Structure formats: structure tokens, C-alpha cells
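Changelog note: in this version the structure field was regenerated for every chain. One regenerated record is shown below for reference.
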Amino acid sequence: MHPGIFPAIVSTAMPERIQAIGILESYSLATMIIAADAVLKAADLEAIEIRLGTGLEGRRISLFTGDVAAVKAGSEAGKANNWRKRNAHKFGNNSVAVGEIG
């Protein structure tokens, strides 16, 4: 398990710098943890937060940051490991959505 997973789950992750942001969404708690682990291992990325709780209409959300290429690689890895898929999105620095996967 990537060392950034647990701090992100308990909302204590403190990325050095927010660059491009990736968002991964799933309905399964276990699938989200596995996909978030794959995201962080795929490229030079830092977890921002992993929301696994209620109040999100059954969704689990993972937020991560890195440069645009790393976020894209992480999004692809998360998609490949998120067999109960929802969506993965990438947002560039100071821009609107640059793409959608799923």
C-alpha cells in the first residue's frame, strides 16, 4: 500500500504543492482504496484526500495532485484498477477540465 493512502483517508495529507488535480470516483470502498493505491504508484503524485464516508450518494472520491502528465498517467492507472467504475477527471493548473475518462 502506498504510504500516502492512510493520511489521505484521515484528511491529514499535506501535499507540498498543488499542481494539476485528478479526481477518481467509485461506488465501492474497497475498489476506491485499490484504485487510489494504483494512482499514487503510477507516477509522481501526491494524495490530497480520499473520501470514503457517507453523504456522497454512495460515492467514494479520491483527489490527487502532480504535473499534468503524472495526473493523466495516474488517472489511467486508477481507471484500470477501478472495476466498478464511475469517473476519472483531470484538471490542469488554473484551467477548466482538460479531459474525462470513463
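Spot check on this record: The two ends are 25 Å apart (CA to CA). Residues 94-102 have pLDDT under 50 and may be disordered.
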